[in-house]
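REQUEST ID: PR-0412
SUBMITTED BY: lab tech R.K.
PRIORITY: routine
TASK: structure prediction, single protein chain
INPUT:
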Amino acid sequence: MKADRLLSILLLLQTRGRVPAHELADRLEVSVRTIYRDVEALSASGVPVYAERGRHGGIELLAGFRTDVTGLTADESRALFILAAQGAHAALGLDAALGSALRKVMAALPAPYRPAAEVTSRRILVDATRWKGGPQPAVDLDVLQDAVFADRRLRLRYRHSGAKDPSTYTVDPYGLVSKAGVWYLVADRRARPRLFRADRVHSATLLPDPVKRRTGVELADSWEELRRQVEERPGGLDVTVRVRRSRLDMFVRLNASSLAQLPENDGEKEWVTVHLSYGVVGEARQLLQFADALEVVSPPEVRAEVAAAAASVTELYQRVSGPDE
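STATUS: complete
OUTPUT:
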C-alpha cells in the first residue's frame, strides 16, 4: 500500500539520514521513478523532504525533523513484542535497552493496538535452544560486537571442532548470527566467507585496521552462502535402516540433520524404512542409541561399524560390572 510505503520512506530517512533513491527503490521493491513520486507526495503533505541529484546526492529530511511511530499496524506492533521474547538481546547486553525501547513503542502505539501488544509478550514465548541440548558454554561477545559495529578487523585465537589447540586468524567481520541458541561470527578470511562459532573463540583482539569486506556483500548475503554450504554439503555415504514404528518420531527428531528424505509412514507395518546420509562411516555410531529398535540394512560397512560399537559397549559394561553381575 502507498501509505505504508510513504511511512517506510519517512522512517528510513529519519534513521539513516541521506539515502540514495536507488537504495530506497531496492528496499521497497519499486522503481526509482515511484520513489521520486512518493517524495513529492510527502513534501505536498508538509514533510520537509528534499532530493539532491549527483554522485553524492540522495533523499533527505530537513535537519531536526522527527516523527513518531503511530503508523504501526496491529501486526507490526505484535511482531516487535515477539521479537522481544527471543532472548538474543540478553547475550548482547541489551536487555535494559530493549525494555526501555519497547516502553517507548508502547507509548507511541495507537490506543486500540496497545492491549494486543501487551498480551503478545505474555502469550508468545520463543525458546531458541534445542531439547536436551545440554548446558551452553559462556560466550563473551563484547569484543566481537565492538569489531562488528566499529568496522574493524579482528585477530582470533580459534579452536576448530576436534582440534587440540587453537589457530590464529585475522578476519574481516560482517556481523553476528544467533542460530538455535548458538552464536556465530560471520567474517571473511583472505576474501573468502568463514563461519566461527563464538564459544570456540579463545581470544579476540580488536585491530586498528578497517575491515576489508567484499564489495556489495552484506551480512545476510554472506550468511546465506555459508548456510547453504553447511546444509547442502554432500553426505557421501547412503545408509538404509529399519526403525520400529513406536520409536520413529524420536528417531526422526534426533537424526533430522542426517535424513536423506522423510520416511514414508503408512501407519501399518511395525518397521519403517529410513534413508540416511553420513559423511564418514564413523558417524553411524550414533545409531547405537536405538539399538533395541533399529536394524541396519545397508551398506555392510555401516552394519559392521554399529555391531563393533555395540560389542565395545558390552565389553566395557562387563569389565566395569565384574563377572558376578
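NOTES: The beta strands are 49-52, 58-61, 152-158, 167-179, 182-189, 192-197, 201-210, 237-244, 271-278, 294-298.
REVIEWED BY: pending
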